[in-house]
Amino acid sequence: xxxxxxxxxxTKNQSVKNGKAPVMGRITINGTQAGFSCKxxxxxxxxxxxxxxxxxxxxxxxxxxQELDNIRAQITKHYQYICDHDSFVTAKKVYNRYVGFxxxxxx
Length: 107
Known about the structure:
Elements: E1 5-11, E2 20-29, E3 32-43, E4 47-48, E5 53-54, H1 59-85, H2 91-99
Antiparallel strand pairs: 1-2, 2-3, 4-5
């Protein structure tokens, strides 16, 4: 079965401190959503809402974009794993696996 999968990043403009807003993320799979904080902040002048990332070539923009790409890659990896091992995928399952909830640890 084919499913829709998207990872979106956005700023939470209501919580601006010192000109910086927290960067939030949202996983959407087949209409189910799971939101999370990326634990990153960005200057509102650097944020490009259409591209869902920082604009420009400054060190701050490049570092943030690289960190967002890493988060997206990890979430995509967990999505693929769940697709391969489970018959039903939800955004909450992917999020829980990303943050480490309910994971089997082998020693």
